[in-house]
Amino acid sequence: MSDKLIIAVDAQIAALVPRFLANRAADVDKIRAALARADFAAIRAVAHAMKGSGGGYGFAEISRLGAAMEEGAREGDAAAIGALAASLEAYLARIEIKPGDEREAPGNG
Questions:
Q1: Is 68 helix (H, G, I), strand (E, B) or coil?
Q2: What is the second-level CATH architecture of the domain 5-97?
Q3: Which of 24, 44, 60, 100 is the most core-located residue (most Cβ within 10 A)?
Q4: Is residue 7 classed as helix, strand or coil in its secondary structure?
């Protein structure tokens, strides 16, 4: 999907968001590596942290995907985890950050 997802972030955290998103991209790699080893405990730990941090940065979708991957890891569902990791990767690739303030609603572009 080539459509950008333009997201306004609070100016107070705008400088932190690129690193946060880069860390989530690194998490995709960690999850895939753990999936190759069938290390569901490692996947659960990464996904749990992602679930907790996404909302704090204004990315509810990252929290949602983290929660779903955590559940997939609990169930040992490698196929679901793989699909969710691909969804996260695609979501991250679409994000374009726009410094703003909390009153601005995220826009779709």
A1: helix
A2: Up-down Bundle (1.20)
A3: 24
A4: strand
